[in-house]
Amino acid sequence: MKKRILSATSALFIASVIWAQDGGQIHGNFSVDGQLYNDDEEIGAVKPPADFGLNSWSNLMYRNNNFEAGIRLESYEPALLGYPAGQAYSGTGVGFRYATFRKDDLEITAGNFYEQFGQGLAFRSYEERYLGVDNAMDGVRVKFSPDTGIFLKGFIGTQRLAFNNGFTKGTGVVRGIDGEISVLEAFPRLLPKLAEKGNNLSIGASFVSKFQADKDPLLVLPENVGLWAARAHYTTSRWDLYSEYAYKINDPNASNHFIYKRGQALMANATYSLSGLGVTAGAHIYDNMTFQSDRGAPSLFDLNINYLPTLAKQHSYNLPATLYPYATQPNGEVAYQAEVFYLFKRGTKLGGKYGTKLTVNWSGAWSLDSTALPNDTVHLMGYKTNFFSMGQRQYFSDLNVELRKKLSSKWELTLSWLNLMYDIEVVQGKSGKKDIYADMFILEGLHKINDKTSLRFEAQHLSTKQDQGDWATGLVELTFSPHWFLAAMDQYNYGNPVEKERTHYPIGSFGYIRGASRFSFSYGRQRAGIFCVGGVCRVVPAANGLTASITTTF
Amino acid sequence: MRKIILPLMLLLAAGGCDIVSDPKEGLAGPTVPGNDGVVRRVLLEDCTGFRCNNCPQAANMAQSLKNVYGDRLVIVGVHMKQQFAGPEWPYDDGIYDTDFRTEAGNVYDQTFGIIGLPSGLIDRAPYNNIMAMGIGSWSEAVAARMELPPLMDTWFEGLQYDGGTNTVSGTVKVAVLEPINGDHNLTIYLTEDHVIDWQLDGVTNIPDYDHRHVLRGALNSPWGQSLITGDAQPGDTLTATFSYPLPPNVLQPANCALVAYVYSTAGADQYEVKQVVERKIIP
After folding, report:
1. B105-162: per-residue pLDDT in tens?
2. Which terminus of chain B is less hemmed in, N or C, by CB atoms within 10 Å?
3. SS3 B22
4. Cβ separation A299–B134 shorter than 8 A
5. What is the reported pTM?
6. What is the ipTM of this complex?
7. Residue A537 three-state SS
8. Chain A residues near residue B64 by CB distance under 8 angstroms
9. Do the chains contact at A255 and B136, CB–CB below 8 Å?
10. CA distances (Å), A194 to each of A162, A198, A236, in order?
11. Could you give the C-alpha distances from A114 to A89, A157, A181, A328, in angstroms and in order?
């Protein structure tokens, strides 16, 4: 394996030396996260055999005229506890490498690539590094624009599954094609008035198919499973309207309990914005839409071909972000979201001297309105659905109000209230647990002490009669611009019904920033919880220890 | 160049769709070789837990495969993870109070990086690059392992259970059929069938679920004992004599069985099970 790493690195270096004569450039970045663990019986933190974990990534990209090549070296010696979300990562090696050639509206990539069709209902290959999700393709991708406003993409390849001294791949072959027409760009004389106003309408369609051999002795499985999708996107200076529909043929897999029902998804989002006012509304239904390149994929984090966006606000505050975040239910959910923000202007009664921003957001998700078909032992369709009709079971709702107010040149405050309903049995798989009803209040303040020094603080409180009871979190962060920051935080589960589990989770950190480099260190307890990005969540185990992170770019 | 791009892209995507209207039509069924001669037997370790709501589905899958392959498939239910196989608070209310975990199960959970349950280890060999696999791969993975030729035969001799001392004793014999390279160990499990206890099935709590093939412990430690050092040649017969008390978590000795398997301890096939055999301790 060392030979492979050396040879790949050497090839890039030699290429850079050869082409540097023509003015090629090398860019890159580096990041490392390491943690030294302690045992901590009180919070259930167990020190791993190696005492520490370390994740590291180094990207090198070379560009010269029409040519681009890149490589990413990754190291997990061993991986941080709970990382990644799916199959295990271990060892050191090449995690990503590619070469791209562009000429005359044609782009060809060989090797690894990330790609997305529309919002991802048909296909999305992406990396969410700190979540530990990476379903990079390995194959060939072609992009071509035959005329103004017309964009075509096609690809074929296999997907990254895990990492063992280099990326390992799943067994299924994925191929796809996507076309998009920016109508007013391609045909400006068709609707000249709209084109003059800067409006645009784009329509697109995709077809994605996976191949996996059928060697199952118990069932006849489809070896080729296709999914098609169509989308439309209309924008004006004030409106942004988007809708996408996807349909998948029979795709029996572990996630849907090997039923042969078709899958479908429909999403629609609308945004209206004026100066000082924004309104967003969205809805979607996902029915049997898990689409993985291995029908036996061991978890919902592995080998996903498509991506199902969530309709829930992604909170950044500690308690709402890590205790009860919502994760998309790909096999079936109906969800809605609406958000309004209004900026009270300066000089008005509510706006005061600096203006006031009020944001109200609500989202909710329900089960499908479906009927089980237990007697269907021939076609194995599993259930039938009333499309876009909500089922009886509510998975989630989140009503939150945020008031952001600058009080003076030195003070800014944000006050938030959240009201949450959370079906922990479905969302986190904690069977037998009751639905959670919680209220949260959060006060965030920012005080500029002087031109270089600022103090930020957060006071958070969560109250619930279910699960682990009430929580409180306090955070203080001192920033000495432009180089240093210092922070301390404590989470306290003071309302836990089990007295001995009323635990503090203190953590202190400091960091140094210089140019494009950032160094940070923290020591303390990390509560077991959930970490989510875009509706995809992974479990974070309890930990106690010293964490160090370094990032830099060049 | 441009003229061929679009047809090429269409060709790339022209994978087609296979519509299956009758998922069970025309299945010839797996070929189960008769008992003539030595056959490859396969170990399916069903990583499970009584508080895991999807685990009954996996147990049903394992039993479906057992119905097809009979004695050629050895199933062991390895209960693991505190949140799935450990007791649930309040601890003395008679509901989910049992601790199904074993030292061996805890070690395998760590070693094989079991992320979630249910999960399966099939001969501890990767299938489609995955070692701990979801139930969607079990059927194919078991079929693939069944097709492999046997490298050795394994059987019990002189198996005895002494009710007075609660001890099981006997000898495991291993006859080498093909050249074996590398160190291999022998592990002996004690399993108990038909353990009646709580089980979460979907959203239903079942108080009297029939837990099958429950691992009660690895009698000679989770990683077993050395059996082959260096290599072994066809014609070699290796023996391991044992005598162990039954683990204290056993409820009914009459429902217990021993499972002995030989696996590689190092190299590219590390952990891979080469042969397995199961026998009830009280015939």
Report:
1. 999 998 998 878 889 999 999 998 889 988 889 999 999 999 999 999 999 999 999 9
2. C
3. coil
4. yes
5. 0.86
6. 0.77
7. strand
8. 218
9. yes
10. 48, 7, 9
11. 19, 11, 21, 21
